[in-house]
Description:
By secondary structure, the chain is an alpha+beta fold. It is about 40% helix and about 20% strand. The chain has a three-stranded antiparallel beta sheet. The protein is globular, with a radius of gyration of 11 Å. It starts with a helix and ends with a strand. The model has no long low-confidence stretch (mean pLDDT about 90).
Amino acid sequence: xxxxxxxxxxxxxxxxxxxxxxxxxxxxxxxxxxxxxxxxxxxxxxxxxxxxxxxxxxxxxxxxxxxxx
Length: 69
């Protein structure tokens, strides 16, 4: 694995089971504008990634790595 997908994966691993906000995975320092697409690619590769809504009145989500592919 390399590139932006690796950056998103590493951010999830570094969180050590905690949730990482979607905006943090889609910024220039991490996954770039396609950071959330990288999450879908990781799921397609067999990684289990949970998603939860941050707050009922907001449309933001956080993600955490449950198991490696």
